[in-house]
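2024-03-11 09:14:02 INFO worker-7 job=invfold-0412 stage=load source=structure_tokens
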């Protein structure tokens, strides 16, 4: 159980969670190599979203106190299967979205195929970022920021941003954009290390 309190102050909404050291022990146990199961990783149920977000933030948080504790927990996280679990989950979700898009395209449902291709694109970008230790796929609003923070990835930021914003999407020929995105997704997935 994690204590959780939401409140408003200074014209902002705040969420305050009370995580204990034992919670970190439990979360890290869930992502240990001993517990690693590729099927579970692909299903996305290894961690609750709040747990995943918290572990992902260990890499970038700034300690107000307890720097030694944070250094130790970061090392434990780096030695765990956390990165692999997230990459496998994103690749599995990408595969399912590609399959959906191809089926929808085949049946002439272009609007649904566009949406499925966009979903596939999001998942492959998340997998690329997770491979680089940039976590946060539950918060897609930060995807571009995470992409920039990752530095060098297999895909240039300009190409990613063109696809994310659908800059070259042609409403008169959506199949072209769909096929380009799906091809890119499949090509990138073969370059990602789990």
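2024-03-11 09:14:09 INFO worker-7 stage=emit residues=194
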């Amino acid at each position: 159980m994690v204590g959780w309190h939401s409140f408003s102050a200074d014209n902002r909404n705040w969420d305050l969670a009370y995580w204990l050291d034992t919670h970190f022990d439990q979360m890290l146990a869930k992502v240990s190599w001993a517990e690693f199961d590729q099927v579970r990783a692909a299903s996305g149920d290894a961690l609750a979203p709040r747990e995943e977000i918290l572990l992902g933030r260990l890499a970038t948080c700034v300690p107000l106190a307890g720097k030694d504790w944070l250094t130790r927990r970061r090392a434990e996280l780096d030695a765990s299967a956390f990165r692999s679990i997230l990459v496998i989950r994103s690749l599995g979700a990408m595969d399912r979205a590609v399959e959906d898009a191809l089926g929808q395209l085949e049946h002439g449902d272009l609007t649904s195929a566009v949406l499925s291709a966009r979903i596939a694109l999001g998942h492959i970008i998340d997998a690329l970022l997770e491979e680089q230790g940039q976590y946060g796929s539950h918060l897609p609003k930060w995807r571009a920021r995470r992409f920039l923070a990752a530095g060098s990835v297999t895909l240039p930021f300009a190409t990613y941003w063109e696809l994310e914003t659908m800059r070259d999407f042609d409403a008169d020929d959506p199949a072209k954009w769909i096929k380009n995105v799906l091809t890119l997704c499949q090509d990138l997935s073969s370059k990602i290390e789990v």
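2024-03-11 09:14:09 INFO worker-7 stage=report msg="The chain has two domains: 21-82, 89-189."
2024-03-11 09:14:10 INFO worker-7 job finished
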